Amino acid sequence: MKQKDVFHAPPPPLVDIEAQCRGLSSIPCICGCKEMNLVDDIPSAFPLAKSFARHDVKVGECKKCGIFRIIGPPYYNDEEMGKFYANTYPPVCNEYSAKNWNHDIQLAEKRCAEYGIREGTNYRILDVGSGSGAFVVECRRRGAEACGCELSKYHYADSSEDEWVYRERLEDINFPTDYFDIVTCHDTLEHVLDPVKMLEEMFRITKQNGECFLDFPNYFDESGGHHWKHEHLWYFNRAELRKLLKKVGFKIVNVSQPIQSKLLFNCKKPNQQRASILVPPGIGDSFWSVIKLEAFIEKHKLGIPDVCIVCNRDKAHDGHKRSVPFLRMFPFINCTGKVFVNNDSPKLRKIWKEAYGRPGRTCFEGVHDCDYFISYNGHLRVGESMDEIDPHLKTNWHPKRFVSLEERRFKEESVKKYGEYIVWYLPFFGTYKYWLNEFPVEKVIEFVLSVTEYTGLTPVFTGAAWDRDDNPVLDCIMDHIPNAVDLRGETSVEQLFGLINGSTGVVGFPSGLTIMAATFGVRTFMIWNDFYNRDFAWYCCPPEVKNKTYFIENTKNIHDVAEFSQRVSNIISGKEVIIQETVKPKKPLKVKKKKKERVSTQQTLDVIREVVRDSKTGMTVACVLRSGGHFDISYVEKLRNMLYRNVTAEYSMVCLTDIDFNLDGVDIVPLKHGYDRWWSKIELFRPGVIQTDRVLYFDLDTVIIGNIDDLFKLNGEFLALQPWNSKNRKKGFLASGMMLWKPKDYTFVYADFHEGVMSSCQAGDQEYVSKELALHNKQYVPLQNVVSGIYSYKRNCRHGLPKDARIVCFHGRPRPHMVNEQWVLENWK
User: Which domain holds residue 150?
Assistant: First the structure.
């Protein structure tokens, strides 16, 4: 008998599962029904189930859908199932005596041949319910990236099995969506409490157009009689399995019986039509979108969306792509790996500015042909908490995440290799230059040396490839720190997370690395700066870790480095909990200094200073503020703010001035001479004033209204504005409201200058610089010929702002503060 519908058992009694004692109860049916008809005459109904009759095992038929399942299974929940398969199964009895490693390997070879897994394959394969691990081992031998999941440990399993097998239920591992080329499941579905849930998970993790092979007992065939066992919970026939697989989404390619006692379903996962969502680049930035995404997806009923990354520039090292493996860790989305770059589209620049620069919208529709772009940076940076932003969407700081065997293994290996260690993240470029204004390199080196000495923990420095290649200052620091371990650019995201979770603590500047460390509950000390809103320091991490495992300090509060080092050492070592960020420890950690020879701190600082001097590369943005004129300090501040909003490239900013003031993010260089009016610009060419290889100068009455990253890529000899005045254009003069040049090649402009020039050059510095270039066989290139979107307020903007405007020059009157037009008010601030 092959089909169960031909059985003619006596009319069975009705069993209400919830009302029965444990011995007669069962698990709910896959259709949701909790009522079944008891099959009380097993020999008559299922003559193949001989072992059932011997052991008094009972079977019930679902009253609603007719599926057969066991009554009185050996387990009723996940915990019981885990204990059963860890301690009991497979039973050691005669029917399993033929099973051993050789038997399983031979069977694995046959299955590989059946599935088309040949030598030299590069498939990514998962074996669900991998048993002894023989199929995984055979697939890896053939070149596949194979792994398995299995609750029980077979006594004859290969010793290497644990390296590739997850000891968890499939649903608890949280594999990435669309992850495996092939998913196999041999002799497993009949054992699980919820086969639908397991099949849905198998469908989710299979790649689109990937294959799934499901092997299931052929109960209703003469050859499958031995599969009627007390540990099998479900007794599906061919039609029921076909219906079930289609229900979860699989397309059935073929059903065969390579082994007569088994049914083998070969299925494919069709291409999926999904909603598409853009998130920002970087681990930290994208994480803030992720913790709201589950609620957003549920609200809009999106299912599993495709997630892509949008970046406002193509970074060196493809750094924005580092968030791709991070986003793939979250099972409720599918990270496609696709990255969009906002080139020169005004619309996209405007969206980026709103998403990142100010508390505007958090969700944008129809960006880069995707359905949504979701970002919370603009709100966080002004001091709003994640719960305050979009309060209708629940914030989940700890979403389900895939923790790979590689991540777990790297954690164990790191602890074994380094003992107790601190992870350090200290970049010295980009926006972190603002940190160094108040916490300079000399203090940083003293801080790292002191914490290393106080705690005795191994210092491990980490980061991405650009942290290694563009960080010569840190290279020098590590050379003078005993036992320093350099892992910059050496770890994947998975390995990095393993390293963090194995550490005693993490110390460094704000980044995705330190934010995730705080989220993991690792003791984390983050050093902040007023470059960001002070509340941002707390709101970037889960609120429950504040002053428990996550601590902060602002660079402006670091005065006594020795005291600060002791405080951080106390926190990382778990010796003392600080309630407020500025409270001094009552009982500082007392650690005897190790007696060992090392380079003195002063020698180290001397070397560091030399490295800093030699590593000044890139771009400096310069301006000049002369007292007694039309401009004041607020003009410098507004230029700084406009640059921050509209430039993503790395640069430093310097102001030459005769006014004594401090402004975060701006290096102040005193003017040496008392040159009047615009003649102070000549000091820009003074040797040593600009220490980078390029300088970009702006007059203070310049309004920047759009992204100007392309200016920072220019590398010509000397670029300047073409005069707005036709008279000066005809004379071949340049306009000095914007200039870009290589400082080391144009020091002659300063060297040749004398006070007599000021009376001889009627057109001022513009005439003098133009003549100096000609005298030294140099020629300027008009900036308007090289980049677009540069306009004069007087000449081009009186009757409205040009659509492509990015820079507006307010030469002469009116000054920007005299104009009340909306676009000026929105940008000049």
Answer: 78-268
